[in-house]
Amino acid sequence: MSMVSKAVVLADRQRLREALPSGEGLLGIVTTDRAEGVLYVLSRYEDMVWWLPKTGCPTSLVDCKRKLDFARIRCKQLRSESKAVMARLIWANTKLAVSTVSGQFMKLVVWLNWLHDQGIRSLAQVTPMVADRYVQHVNQLTSPNRIGGPLAPGTKAQRLLVVETCWRHLLDTPNGFDHPWPENSASALAKLKQATKPKTDIIPEEVLHPLFQQSESLLSRATELLGNRDAVGDYQLRYKNLSGQIKEKSRFLKTRGWDLGFGALNNALRELRDGCFVIILATTGIRAHELGNIRRDHWYSEVRDGERFYFLGSRSDKTHEGETSWLCPEIAIHAVKTLERLSEPMQIELEQALEHAIAVGDHQEVTRLQECSECVGLTSAHPETNKLLIFK
To answer: Which domain of life is it from (predicted)?
Structure first.
């Protein structure tokens, strides 16, 4: 990745916009990001893979969700046309969430590969009859969540909306085509009705009550559990092999009154982390990504009319609210403080990884790690990736 000035980025974008109608000279910067205040290139139009910026994403978003791999589109010509669609989609609304852009791309891949299977090699060959066949195809698909059942109207609408997106963004190009369904729309064809209730169901009281009680019980044992973890971390091991070390740690824990073994302690610590998440979610009503954005010491309290009130700070990306705070009970702050202590070892690892990324000039990794730094929900990814992430 290379550093670049804002002026160069804007000049490339303008040149690409002017070149898209003719389809010639399509070279230049498409996406950028910032690390340590420096703007750098993420993707160029001619790249087979485009990366969407990490900045502004929920910290829980995995990197693969920022990847647009055009090689997934089997037909070379359709692949070329898809780049024009995605470039204009990205430029048209810079506030679109990365997950939304990524989702649109996934639907686009499905639509274009279906066209390829029909023997169609360019979107210029799409007619209302072809579009109608795609509607029939989507209506015949079954839901992976409801075995044998049809796709939900919302899912159908998303699959069909991408056809309209192609039509809209290619009108002034040689690959433009007539409106796919004159006097109709994707939403109407999918029989999508306006939502009348929230999509997320409320957790039933008979489920939430025992879950919260268990979380409170775990929180009350936080000092004991974290004390044992820290003591094991400071203990000087004699064995070199993993099996011997686990047994040695278990014997050491027994001298501290923990008879369940090292594996059970790790399980209890994971349950403690999850219990803290449950307490914060249940007492504040924040969204999962807002929970992932909570950072160390991002809380405060005020005394009003002799009573103390607590406020938990975070960043809301979905609502575009940005930095904001939620009124919460004291137990939520206790849970945050526990998460701070739980994540201390991983925060140290993160700082070491960040120093290395800066030293080798890996700007993309610097941005990712800076987004994760100081978050109380730090966790480890799959051992093979050896990455630190925010909980998901």
So the answer is: Bacteria
Angle formed at CA 365 by CA 360 and CA 370, multiple of 5 degrees: 110
Tell which of 165, 189, 213 closes a domain: 189
- In which residue are the tokens 């000049």 written? 11
Domain identity same for 180 and 222: no
* Residue carrying the six token digits 């923990």: 258
CA atoms of 78 and 72, how far apart (whole Å): 11
> Residue 383's pLDDT is what?
46
What pLDDT shows up at residue 196?
Answer: 46
Instruction: Give Cα 115 to chain centroid, integer Å.
Output: 29
Contact 66, 102 (CB under 8 A): yes
Nearby residues of 361 by Cβ (< 8 Å), 6 or more positions away: none
How many domains does the chain fold into? 2
**pLDDT of res. 122:** 96
CA distance 147 to 129: 30
Position 369 in a domain: no
Q: Where are the beta strands (DSSP E) in the chain?
A: 29-35, 38-44, 49-51, 67-69, 299-304, 307-316, 322-328, 378-380, 388-390
Tokens representing residue 153 in the block: 């109207």
**173 and 309 both lie in a single domain:** no
Q: Are residues 288 and 184 in the same domain?
A: no
Q: Is 347 part of any domain?
A: no
Report the SS3 class of residue 385. Answer: coil
Q: Could you tell me the sign of the dihedral formed by the alpha carbons of 389, 315, 64, 1, in that order?
A: negative
Cβ count within 10 A of residue 213? 10
- Same domain for 123 and 69, yes or no, is yes
Cα–Cα distance, 216 to 279 (Å, whole number): 8
What pTM was computed for the model?
0.61
Closest CA to 120 of 155, 152, 90, 163: 163
Among residues 316, 342, 368, the one where a domain terminates is 342
Domain that holds residue 210: 205-342
| pLDDT confidence of residue 163 | 95
